[in-house]
Design goal:
Blueprint lengths: L7 E3 L11 E5 L11 E6 L7 H9 L3 H7 L10 E5 L8 E6 L8 H15 L6 E5 L6 H14 L17 E5 L3 H22 L7 H15 L2 E5 L1 H6 L3 H7 L7 E8 L10 E11 L8 H4 L7 H15 L5 E11 L11 E3 L5 E3 L7 H14 L4 E6 L3 H7 L4 E5 L2 H13 L4 E3 L17 E2 L8 H10 L7 E5 L5 E2 L9 E2 L4 H9 L2
Parallel strand pairs: 2-7, 3-5, 3-6, 6-7, 10-11, 10-14, 13-17, 14-18, 15-16
Antiparallel strand pairs: 1-2, 4-5, 8-9, 9-11, 12-13, 15-18, 19-20
The site of ligand BES has 15 residues, from α12.
């Protein structure tokens, strides 16, 4: 008999010291014996007799079964039923969270269900909360449930004295392996890092302060980091990044992270992650209306996802050689701001006529993609809050995919779906390339009119990847939630952190 694994205290290097409480695995402990503020158990629709719900029904003397028979407990997806002082439990409260139809339960559903329960319980301070995993779950499912719980208890209230969410002092997972709990906690720290960066006020998070955050997390997770300041950007001919940044008193930065996993010392990177890091998008001289500008601190969400995913991948010691590059700019209207009609010579040599200073993300990414192309990665994937048009096409929840390489795009879509983040591919229709041709320069930074705007933006980016297999993910919709959902407070969502980690793990 192997000795039972020791309870592990989880605190990943992705996490800055102040965030989401300890996460502990108690693989063999009996949940009913653990003193806690609350005990969370998962239940599929009508399935009070199955899995850990059945076990809890037994120890509570058939309480769950009676509630189910009375129609009070159905297991509907994300429905939470809370019971105080249930018999047979050391915990003060039992929370049953519904999973919906049993055959539809997957890692993504478990992530959201655990997050829903945690979010509800985190409405008040709790010293300890126990989550009961189910023996039938796969390792991936345990990981995503653990991640969901640790994300759900963190809110967007960074600046509120009276916090809406208080992370539990400790989260205990029973019937889960310490390895899966550790991985899930690390993934959650990645998602919460991306969320915190997005939720930070734009006057606090600007190109240099984002780069400082990147340097701190790189140091903790063992990544190499380069930060190009404006002089270095000039030496490197990154005129496109510099042009967009000229209207701001906060100069632009380019962050390049490199992680070489076990057994990956030489050769070019296997994957390059690229992120749009516009720390605030006023629109520039093509100024946004006030209502559209309010949430534009979210315009660095692609960069945050890329930083957080790279940090998580490094903390998990995944066997990959990865680079991540984030173009950091504040798009403002200062006296030196770039203008409509300006022609920018991008690092690649391509000349860009500026028709709209609010189409700044693609201009920034032109240089970031060119820098990355020079590193000759086997594959590139970028994440960017690039176009409102993508939200018109796909709504708030679904990210748009665009590619020059179908197998690469398919892998990314599969990774996203495996963790429950919806994505949908849009066509890189060849004729739309005509729309970005300019009379004055090689290309212009908008299409003809607004129709198909997310595709013309992707066609623009394609010009800078030099034929390397590449997929662009437009996360303008999913990066930021204007309203809360049952499983998450509003604000930054951490979209694409889990898909990127899953992508590198290879499903
Ligand atoms: N950052 C915006 C896109 C965006 C909109 C992200 C809403 C998240 C929510 C981007 O820089 C932008 O302004 N795009 C313009 C492009 C247009 C001027 C061609 C847009 O979508 O209107
Ligand atoms: Mn813009
Ligand atoms: Zn933007």
């Amino acid at each position: 008999m192997p000795t039972p694994p020791r309870a592990a205290v989880e605190f990943s290097p992705v996490r800055s010291a102040d965030t989401a409480g300890r996460i502990v695995a108690e693989p063999t402990a009996r949940p009913e014996t653990i003193a806690a503020d609350a005990l969370v158990v998962f239940m599929a629709e009508g399935a009070v007799g199955a899995g850990s719900a059945a076990a809890l029904d037994r120890v509570t003397g058939g309480l769950l079964g009676r509630l189910a028979a009375a129609g009070e407990l159905g297991g509907k997806r994300y429905e939470c039923v809370s019971l105080l002082a249930a018999p047979g439990l050391a915990a003060g409260q039992l929370l049953v969270v519904g999973l919906g139809k049993r055959e539809e339960v997957d890692a993504g559903v478990l992530y959201k269900a655990a997050a829903t329960a945690a979010r509800q319980l985190a409405g008040r301070p709790r010293a300890q909360v126990v989550f009961v995993a189910d023996g039938s779950w796969t390792t991936r499912q345990v990981e995503q449930a653990v991640a969901g719980a640790a994300v759900g208890m963190v809110g967007q209230d960074l600046y509120r004295a009276d916090r809406r969410r208080t992370p539990f002092g400790a989260t205990v997972w029973t019937a889960a392996s310490p390895e899966a709990v550790r991985a899930g906690a690390t993934i959650a720290d990645g998602v919460n890092l991306a969320r915190r960066l997005v939720n930070t006020a734009p006057d606090d998070l600007y190109p240099q302060s984002f780069a400082d955050e990147a340097a701190a997390v790189a140091g903790r997770t063992g990544m190499e980091i380069e930060i190009w300041d404006e002089e270095q950007l000039l030496r490197e001919r990154c005129q496109a990044i510099l042009a967009v940044g000229r209207g701001s008193s906060r100069p632009p930065r380019l962050v390049i992270l490199r992680y070489r996993g076990p057994g990956r010392q030489d050769g070019p990177p296997e994957v390059a992650l690229v992120g749009k890091g516009v720390t605030f998008d006023s629109g520039g001289l093509s100024l946004k209306p006030s209502d559209s500008m309010l949430t534009m601190k979210c315009d660095m969400a692609g960069g945050a996802a890329v930083l957080a995913a790279a940090a998580t991948i490094a903390a998990l010691r995944l066997p990959v050689h990865l680079v991540a590059a984030i173009g950091l700019v504040e798009n403002m209207t200062g006296p030196a701001a770039y203008k409509l009609g300006d022609v920018i010579t991008a690092r690649s040599g391509t000349t860009i006529e500026v028709h709209n200073t609010d189409a700044e993300g693609r201009i920034v990414l032109a240089d970031v993609l060119d820098v990355v192309r020079g590193l000759q990665p086997a594959r590139i994937v970028d994440a960017a809050t690039l176009t409102g048009a993508c939200m018109v096409a796909l709504g708030h929840d679904v990210a748009g995919l665009f590619t020059n390489d179908q197998p690469w795009c398919d892998r990314i879509a599969a990774a996203a779906r495996a963790v429950g983040e919806p994505v949908w591919q849009l066509p890189m229709y060849a004729d739309y390339d005509e729309q970005i041709k300019s009379e004055v320069a090689d290309i212009k930074n908008v299409g003809d009119g607004r129709w198909g705007g997310s595709i013309t933006a992707a066609k623009f980016l394609e010009r800078f990847v030099g034929g390397i297999p590449w997929t662009h993910i437009d996360i303008a919709g999913p990066a930021f939630a204007e309203k809360p959902k049952p499983w998450t407070d509003g604000g930054g969502t951490g979209a694409m952190v889990r898909p990127f980690v899953e992508l590198i793990r290879g499903g």
